[in-house]
Structure formats: C-alpha cells, structure tokens
C-alpha cells in the first residue's frame, strides 16, 4: 500500500503540470477545447452533433466558429441544420444572412422556424414572411402551402424543445400553463401559430395586420388571443372594426384580449383625430 501512494501522487503531480504548466498554455487549452468540439461535430450521433453546433453561438467574432456553423447548415439532418441556424443568429455575421435566407426554404419546418428566429432581431422581411406562413399556412403570394410540413410539429416533445432551445416563444404569454400543456400533448399546432402571430406584431407590412384580424376568428382560442394581443401592439386603428366581434367570444382569454385591443386602438384613433 505504501508503495502505491508515491506513484499516485506522482501521477497527480504530472497531471497538474499538464493542466497548469507550460504544456497547458492558453493556446494549448484552446486547442484541446476545439478538439472536443471537432469530435462532436463529426459524430455519427445526431444529438452529439447538435450539441457541438449549438454552442458555436457562444463564440461571436470567432471566424472558426462561424465557418463550422455555416458548414453545419448543410448537414443532412434537420436537427443539426436548425441548431446551425440558431448558432448563426447568435454570431451576427453579415456573411450568414444569405445562408439563413436559404434555410427559410428548407424542407423541414423546424429549420425554417430556427432560421426565421435568427433573422427576426434584425427585422428581416423574409423572416416575417416565414412567420406569416406559420400563422396562415400560406405565403403572402398565395404559394407555398406548408400545412403538410406543419404536421412535423405535432410532436409535443419537439414543440417543448424548440420553445426552450430556440427561444421563439411557443407560449405566447404567461398565465395559461395547464391549458397550453394540454394543448401541447394533443394533436395541435396552435402554439406555433400563436407564436407566429406574436412575432407579426412588429411586421410593418399591412398584409400581416389583415392576416392577424382574420385569425381572430380562428377555431383555437390560443391563436385568437395571440392575434388580438399582436393587433393591440401594432397600434393600427384601421384594424379596430375587424376585431369587434371578438368582444363576444365565448372564451374569457379571447374576450379580455379583444377588450384591451379595442381600448388601445380606439384611444389611438381618438388621439389621431384630435391631433391630425
């Protein structure tokens, strides 16, 4: 036993030197860290590749991270492409905008949503176009129906994962916990459409405003409520008449949202008339 103690101490000492001594300079530590990421990025396991790609977003200004994230945007697996889109959004590189625009046409809606979320902070019109599609099921041009693709999001686990990982806000407002939980468990894409409505509050295109008015008569109370809240935030009095029927909705959440929207828009309309 006594003879083993010195050997153990010696090994520990050598390990300490390797970590903190000359062998482990700043460059060496960085190389070791990159090696860890590189290993994950080349993994056959999709989950491990996703983890390796996602953290690249923590390295803004690093050309190597940017290059790897852009390469991951062409991965054969949609989960990896979506992670790449999220990372590129965090890296804020002008060179990535074209890549994110391309991902908006991806065959997998999770990738489209991640790319749109990455572009929204810069108020990119093409990102708003994508959210318009998620809300209405069609492009503003009337082409490119995505209803079949939306079926991908009927997986409640995937919905929950994206609400956390991509930060796109599938739960459009607070205080509806259990109801939304039940919805996520069911065969429903309403949380995604509600989140899309919320995003369109900031889209300056009048066509999005009209789309929101239309959705105030949707079959889902969650979508109706989110649309009404978005209309209130838009502050466009021209939408006022279109939302008045929602004041009579049987759902309390919808009625309250409608009431707030009517108050806000009518107040703005009065102020505009008094101060043209």
Write a short abstract of this structure.
By secondary structure, this protein is an all-alpha fold. The protein is built from 16 helices and no strands. The protein has a domain of 122 residues: Leucine-rich Repeat Variant.
Write a structural description:
- With 276 residues, the protein is an all-alpha fold.
- The chain has a domain of 122 residues: Leucine-rich Repeat Variant, CATH 1.25.10.10.
- It contains 16 helices and no strands.
- Helix 2 crosses helix 3, helix 4 packs antiparallel against helix 5 and helix 7 packs across helix 8.
- The radius of gyration is 24 Å and the shape is elongated.
Key features of this structure:
276 residues; mainly alpha; elongated; Leucine-rich Repeat Variant; 16 helices
Task: Chart the SSEs and their pairings.
Layout: H1 4-20, H2 26-41, H3 46-54, H4 63-72, H5 78-91, H6 97-103, H7 109-119, H8 125-136, H9 147-150, H10 156-165, H11 177-185, H12 190-199, H13 206-215, H14 221-234, H15 240-243, H16 252-274
Helix pairs in contact: 2-3, 3-5, 4-5, 5-7, 6-7, 7-8, 8-12, 12-14, 13-14, 14-16
């Amino acid at each position: 036993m006594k003879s083993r103690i010195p050997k153990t101490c010696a090994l520990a000492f050598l390990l300490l030197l390797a970590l903190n001594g000359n062998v482990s300079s700043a460059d060496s530590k960085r190389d070791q860290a990159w090696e860890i990421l590189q290993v994950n990025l080349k993994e056959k396991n999709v989950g491990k590749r996703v983890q390796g790609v996602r953290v690249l977003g923590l390295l803004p200004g690093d050309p190597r991270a940017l290059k790897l994230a852009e390469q991951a945007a062409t991965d054969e697996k949609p989960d990896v492409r979506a992670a790449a889109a999220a990372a590129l959004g965090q890296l804020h590189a002008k060179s990535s905008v074209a890549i994110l625009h391309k991902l908006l046409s991806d065959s997998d809606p999770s990738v489209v949503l991640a790319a749109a979320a990455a572009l929204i902070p810069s108020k990119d019109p093409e990102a708003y176009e994508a959210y318009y599609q998620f809300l209405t099921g069609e492009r503003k041009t009337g082409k490119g129906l995505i209803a079949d693709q939306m079926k991908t999001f009927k997986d409640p686990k995937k919905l929950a994962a994206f609400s956390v990982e991509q930060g796109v806000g599938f739960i459009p407002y607070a205080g509806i916990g259990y109801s939304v939980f039940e919805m996520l468990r069911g065969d429903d894409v309403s949380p995604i459409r509600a989140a899309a409505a919320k995003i369109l509050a900031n889209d300056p295109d009048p066509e999005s405003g009209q789309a929101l008015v239309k959705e105030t008569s949707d079959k889902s109370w969650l979508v109706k409520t989110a649309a009404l809240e978005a209309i209130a935030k838009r502050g466009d009095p021209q939408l006022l008449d279109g939302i008045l029927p929602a004041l009579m909705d049987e759902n309390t959440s919808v009625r309250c949202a409608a009431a707030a929207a009517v108050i806000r828009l009518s107040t703005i309309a009065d102020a505009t008339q008094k101060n043209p």
